[in-house]
Amino acid sequence: MTxxxxxxxxxxxxQSLLTRHRIEDGVExxxxxxxxxxxxxxxxxxxxxxxxxxxPSADDAERxxxxxxxxxxxAVLSVNGNVAALxxxxxxxxxxxxxxDIEVNLFNRTDxxxxxxxxxxxxxxxxxVKGLDADARIPGLEHERGKVDEDGIYVADVVLVPLExxxxxxxxxxxxxxxxxxxxxxxSRSPRTAAxxxxxxxxxxxxxxxxxxxxxxxxxxxxLEAIVAEFDREEALRDAERAIRDx
Length: 247
Ligand code: ATP
Known about the structure:
The chain is built from 12 helices and 7 strands.
């Protein structure tokens, strides 16, 4: 494995190499699956095309996501192996600022990996991590992939699902949840299903949602509701696609 200390900070692709290193490390610790490496590769390609920066429409969507999380009765941040490897501290910070729960939810669920991710998040400051009870099911998904916590994702009104696969994103939307999806591919089914699609790298998106949430923390409910109501999800997706095509 590349030693992170070997990557010079002035390397033009420093951030991208650092991200890759975190995923490699996640695989070695049993936090990230091998399929997670493929997802990372796909993400890198789209990030390259986006210029490896948060485009203005993504920043807008991140502000809307912050408002939506602050408005939620019961928000849950869903964490998979890539999310845990890339942004453990940042997810804990976002949960603190918005009052959301954290739940581990895996496409390829194994007890070992569930345990490794819960421990990893706790090492990064998470107090309560849901996902181990798995006492409820998302309707329409086969047994293992539909498992969630009754008092977590199952009852949540707002769910942040970064890097989610299309089937599960659709099944959660069919349950009537307001979904916030972070995904670098604007053509993927998950952002296309989301009420709030954020086309940005998770390493930039999560801290930026937190920064917006801090800034909006004392805003009146009516102002938060107006921010959410004015959001145009179709335009956000179109804008990301345009940014990719116009490079
Ligand atoms: P769908 O069924 O929705 O089409 P998919 O098959 O594209 O989903 P996967 O390959 O399982 O889904 O998931 C990987 C997705 O996550 C890709 O769309 C990829 O662009 C995105 N992705 C990978 N790394 C990141 C990252 N660091 N930040 C944001 N998105 C990422």
